[in-house]
Amino acid sequence: LAASLAVGERLGVSGRAFLEAFLTGFEVECKIAEAINPRHYVGGFHSTGTIGTFGAAASAAKLLKLTPPQTAHAIGIAASMSSGIRVNFGSMTKPLHAGRAAENGVTAAELASRGFTAGDDGLDGEWGFFQVMGGGADVSRIVPALGKPFSIVDPGVSFKPYPCGSLGHPTMDAMLKLVTDHDVKPDRIARVRVRAGSNILNPLRYKTAKTELEAKFCLPFMMASIALKRRAGIREFTDEFVSSPPVQAMMSRVDTVFDQAIEARGFDKMRSIVEIDLTDGRKLSQPSDERYRGGPERPFTREELHEKFTDCASLILSSDRIRHALDAIESIDQVKSIRDLTAALVQA
Questions:
Q1: Is 109 among the domain residues?
Q2: What percent of the chain has pLDDT over 70?
Q3: Per the structure, how many domains does the chain have?
Q4: Enclosing domain of residue 58
Q5: Of the candidates 274, 314, 294, which has an alpha carbon nearest to the alpha carbon of residue 181?
Q6: What are the pLDDT digits (tens) for 47-75?
Q7: What is the tens place of the pLDDT at every residue in 96-133?
Q8: Considering only CA atoms, which of 75, 81, 61, 66 is closest in space to residue 3?
Q9: Is residue 75 part of a domain?
Q10: Distance between CA atoms of 309 and 295, rounded to whole angstroms?
Q11: Beta-strand (E) ranges in 33-157?
Q12: Is 139 in contact with 128 (CB distance < 8 Å)?
């Protein structure tokens, strides 16, 4: 998306051309992600930074109208510029992965457009991306599968309900259900336990958070925000809120527990159980919904999408500008120049 916006704005392309480029990059990125050996992510690479580079390169190549040979070179260049490791989750470098992926993808396409060359088999060669970064791939899930169906249609796309690590979102929803259904006030909470498998507990590794960046990968903070505010939006993920005495105190009451029974069910879903011990001796328990809220099985309504956009955009845009931006986004296929959209996304 960022690559399509940047190159599209510079070239002044139409909204339809922008959408075509975005969807091209989206499909390429998804098919590469579906094909590569899972060892790529399990071993520590961050797919947003690594595979995202190819999506950005494909989008930029589409807008720059690269020839097939030039596009192949762009993919090869992207393979050498692809990077991002998960050790940086919870630091400033994690979001840098996304920005660098967009930048590197555009750079790869721009270089290829000027005659810069790369190896012929940057993806599936003996020393190509798949083998070096993942130990192989199922290549039958790429070329024969492109557009059959488009990944944005099936399995579909997910929108994050919270501005933090998605592995914690079903757990946050479970906590929210408990505190709202039982009207649990913060001072009535004695302890909170989150039971989950290694697929959730390992990436969300911070036992307590000192900064908003750490909070994005900290289950105790996620539970604390829901307990105290009954929300965890862009305004809760701030250093000021994270470091506040009530949040720090509530985090100290949250325990994360490895659950072998949940682990044994596999990693196809984000499974967890939230348990709350109340000061009056009662115990509450809520398993997470296996249907990810905002995902294909439980999609956002149009109103919920608008609420999420408004929450994020309110940091820099007025209410009138937000409404104008939403109108521009929802009519993007009709605009003559993508510059109309980018102009709507900045302060007046």
A1: yes
A2: 100
A3: 3
A4: 2-157
A5: 274
A6: 999 999 999 999 999 999 999 999 999 99
A7: 999 999 999 999 999 999 999 999 899 999 999 999 99
A8: 61
A9: yes
A10: 16
A11: none
A12: no
